[in-house]
Amino acid sequence: MNVTAPISNDLRSLYQEIILDHGKSPRNFGVVDHHTCRAQGNNPMCGDRITVTARVTDSRTLEDVAFEGKGCAISIASASMMTEALKGKTAGAVRQLSKAMQDLCTGKADADEARASLPENLAGEIDRLASLSGVHQFPVRVKCATLSWHALNSCLEGKAQATTEK
Amino acid sequence: MSAPAVATSTAHVAFDPVRARADFPVLARAVHGMPLAYLDGAASAQKPRQVIDAVTAAYEEEYANVHRGAYYLSEMATANYEAARKKVRTFINARDLAEIVFTKGATEAINLIAATYGRAFLKAGDEVVLTQLEHHSNIVPWQLLRDAIGCVIRVVPVAEDGSVSIDDVAKVVGSKTKLVAVAHVSNVLGTVLPIHEIVQLAHEVGAKVLLDGCQGIVHQHVDVQALDCDFYVFSGHKLYGPTGIGVLWARAELLDAMPPYQGGGDMIDTVTFEKTTWAELPAKFEAGTPPIVQAIGMGAAIDYLNALDRPGMEAHEDELLRYAMMHLEQVPGVKLIGTAPGKTAIQSFVLDGTHPHDLATVLDRSGVAVRAGHHCAQPLMEALNVPATARASFGLYNTTEDVDALTAALRRAREVLL
Lengths: 166, 418
Fold this sequence. Notes:
- Chain A is α+β, with helices and mostly antiparallel strands.
- Chain A has helices at residues 9-14, 17-24, 73-86, 91-106, 111-116, 123-129, 142-156, and strands at 37-43, 48-56, 62-70, 161-163.
- In chain A, 43% of the residues lie in helices and 17% in strands.
- The radius of gyration of chain B is 22 Å and the shape is globular.
- Classes of the chains: A alpha+beta, B alpha/beta.
- At the A-B interface, helix 1 of A face strand 2, helix 13 and helix 15 of B.
C-alpha cells in the first residue's frame, strides 16, 4: 500500500487560508465602469485567461481596477489581491509594488527585503501580497501568480495583450 | 483481416506489470521523498532500459551519418536505421518498407500531409472533416491549409460521455469531403473512435482517412492494412521510445503522388540548377540528416513491446483503467470526464471546487505525476464546458499501487485546497 506524504510546509505556505479565500471569493471581479484601459493576460501553456480593466485619472492615479477570467486558485487569488492592493494608488506606487511582487514571486527577495525596498506607506500592502511569495518554491506556478500583474502592466502601457510565455 | 502481424510477438511469458516496471529505471526514483507514480504516459512515456541501452550503443559503437559514407560505421548506422524502419513496417503490418516515412514526430507527419497531399489534391470548397476532440496538432495544420487554399473544415461533435458516434460522423461526411482526419484514441478522454466505420463511410464518398495514432498505437494493436485507412501517424516517445522521431505511414501510391515536403540532401535523385528529380520512397520525404539514433531507439522500443505478451499488456491497461475509474469516483467531489464505452487507459477528471493546476501541484508533492490543463485540445475543453482537466494516463509499467497513490493524494488535495 502506498503512504501519503504529510502535507509539506511549502504546500501549506502556497495554499494558505488567505489565498484559498481570495481564490474562491475573488474581490473586484468584473469590469470597471468607464475604464480607460483593458488588457488580457493569457497563459497559453495552461489556458488561464484574465482580463484586467482599470480607470486611470489624468493625474495618473489608479482610481479603480477589476479583473475577470478563469484560472487556478493562485492566478485568481493573485489577481484579486492585486486589485485590493492597487486601488487608489498612484502610477509610481503601482510600479514599485509590481516590481516588489515580481521579486517576491521569483524568490529574488523575501518579504522583509521587499518591504525594505518600498516607502513606508506601501509596507502594509506588500505584507498582504507577500502571502503569495510561497509560489517561488513552485517554479512552474510562478507565472500563475504574476499573470494578473503582467496584464495590469500591459493595461497601463496601453497594450491589449500580455503573456507569461516570453 | 490479415492475422500474421500479431505473430511477430515473441512473448512466451504472461504479462507481468511488476517485472515490466523494473525495466524502467526512472520509476525506481523518489519524487519529493515519495515513490514516483508516473501517470502521464499520454504526454510522454518513460523509457525501458532496453531503449536507453540501444540509444547509448548507437552512439558509443556504431554512430555515423546514414546513406553516405563508404566506410564501416556509416554502413552500420545505415543498416541499424533501416532496420528500425523494418521493425515499424512489421509492427503496423504495412505492405511495403517504402510506406514508412520517418518524421520528427506525429505533429510533423500531419503537417507534412497537409502541406503536400493537402496542397496538391485539395482545392477551395473541399471539406476536411475533424472531430471536436482532436489534438491541436490535428487542427492547426488544417487551418493553415484552409488559409492557403480555401478548403473548409467541418467538425463532428463529441457526446457528453466523450464518445463520437458514427451517426454524427455520417451527418458531416458528404460529397465535398476529401479528407477525414481523426484521432484513433482521444488523448484527453481515452475514447476509442469508431475508426473502421469512419474509414468505410469516408471511402464510400471517395475521401481519404488520416488516423492520428499517437495514443492508439500505445494501447491497441495496429494493422494499417486491416484498418484500411490512408494515413496513419504516431510519435516514438509515447511508445516508450525517444523523442524527435515519428512515423508517417501512407499507401505507397499516395506517397508517390504527393510532392516532396522539404528539399535538401537525401531526398533527391539528381540535382541541377535547371531541374531536380526526387529520390525513391521513402527518402523523398526524408530531407536532411534524419533522427538516426532516435529511429534506432524507437526500433528498440518496438522490439521491447514485441517481446511482451501484448494482449496481456492491453488487458492490464484496461484493468488499470477500470480500477482507476472505480476508485476515483469514490473520492468525494471527483467527476470523471470521458466515460465512453470501450475507452482505453486515459482518464480525465476534475475535483469540485478546485482547479486542475492546483490539483496537479498538490499531487506532485505526493509523488504523483498527472497532467493538468487543456491537453492541447482547447476546442474539446470548450465543448465539455471545463476550462481544464487533470488527466491520469496509464502505461504498461503502471500498477494499481499508482492508482492508490493517486486517490490517496486526491483525498489529501481536498484537505489542502478545500
